[in-house]
Amino acid sequence: MTIKPLIILPDPVLRQLSKPIERVDSDLQRLADDMLETMYDAPGIGLAAIQIGVPRRMLVIDISREGEEKQPQVFINPEIVKSSDERSLYEEGCLSIPDYYAEVERPAVVSVKYLDRNGKEQTVEADGLLATCLQHEIDHLNGVLFIDYISRLKREMVIKKFTKAAKSKAL
């Protein structure tokens, strides 16, 4: 397994639309393992393939708490098929927008259809942190970032801050 470098805002790659995965094979499973390793190293609870520069519709999640046994999950071609009218508010962060957090309101419950790491079709009914995490990572696959849910002024300030940081690193 290999830890991959993370794509950081304002990199335009984060706004790309990820392509569906045609075949689940050993290369894809290796990518899933690399993504999990990268996510754990960061450390984070979710990672979309686009965040390591791979525009394919796959994400990994592990919402187990520190000290608990790891519970890695792989979602290939995930699709929200149902979401509740009830809403929940979570403070979200993102490995591609380090050290920035904001409250985001999303549906409290979602039903997600996907392929598991063996290519078997699954559906999960998720609430709480898993529902939030799935929606956040699926947004990544569609070129959407959690800062798109905050006010325009705050979003512009965040983008400006990360653009300035990226320019100073390039010098």
Automatic annotation (TrEMBL):
Residues annotated as binding Fe cation: C94, H136, H140
EC number(s) stated in the UniProt entry for this protein: 3.5.1.88
Active site, per annotation: E137
Keyword Hydrolase: yes
Pfam families according to UniProt: Pep_deformylase (PF01327)
Listed GO MF terms: metal ion binding; peptide deformylase activity
Signal peptide: none
Family according to the record: Belongs to the polypeptide deformylase family.
Catalytic activity annotation: N-terminal N-formyl-L-methionyl-[peptide] + H2O = N-terminal L-methionyl-[peptide] + formate
Keywords noted in UniProt: Hydrolase, Iron, Metal-binding, Protein biosynthesis
Domain of life according to the entry: Bacteria
CDD domains with a match to the protein in the record: Pep_deformylase
Tagged with keyword Hydrolase: yes
Leading EC class: hydrolase
NCBIfam families: pept_deformyl (TIGR00079), PRK00150.1-3 (NF001159)
Name recorded for this polypeptide: Peptide deformylase
Required cofactor(s): Fe(2+)
PANTHER family xref list: PEPTIDE DEFORMYLASE
Cofactor details (free text): Binds 1 Fe(2+) ion.
GO biological process, one term: translation
InterPro entries: Peptide_deformylase (IPR023635), Peptide_deformylase_sf (IPR036821)
Function of the protein: Removes the formyl group from the N-terminal Met of newly synthesized proteins. Requires at least a dipeptide for an efficient rate of reaction. N-terminal L-methionine is a prerequisite for activity but the enzyme has broad specificity at other positions.
